[in-house]
Amino acid sequence: MADLPRQEAPIRLQGQLLIADPTLREGLFQHSVILLTEHSSEDGACGLILNNPSGHTVGDFLKDEEFASLARIGVHVGGPVSREHLTFAALWWTEEKGLRYATRISAHDAIRHAQNPGTLVRAFVGYSGWSEGQLEGEIRHRSWITAKPTSELLAQSHDQSLWAETLRNLSSYHRVMAECPDDPSQN
Length: 187
Known about the structure:
Elements: E1 17-20, E2 33-40, E3 44-49, E4 53-57, E5 74-77, E6 81-94, E7 98-105, H1 107-114, E8 120-130, H2 134-140, E9 144-147, H3 161-168, H4 172-179
Parallel strand pairs: 5-8
Antiparallel strand pairs: 1-2, 1-9, 2-3, 3-8, 4-5, 6-7, 6-8
Helix pairs in contact: 3-4
């Protein structure tokens, strides 16, 4: 009987974090932490960069009084795709299922979610997207480190410090990676 070629098992990443490998130095994705909100081997993937604040708040864009409760929420750059749209996401933690989220929600839905204790509401312009098989290839080439989110994610600052903090919590090896300078020759 001839040996059959071994099929790789499909990677299931929806709901996980993608942490940029320190060698990934492509502008927007350098030191990024992405929540992978959708993933299938047939359709590709999309997610939101959690740690790229734009310097703007929702109030800079939505001036109507009905959105006043959202005015102070920082706007993050979620990725390079569709950056002309402002959308919202709500994140919360449950002991049974871990990190839960609702993405691409309206401002009115964001207001409703913000009223739930323990729910973090974020605003985004753009998102990150991968075509079929693209993300899997990038992971095989070690551009990304995958990790399951922890409940601490909701309490951490969603700025550039999130990358190093997330790496430090993975393992002692990753802790060393987080502490290395961008240019190791400067060490």
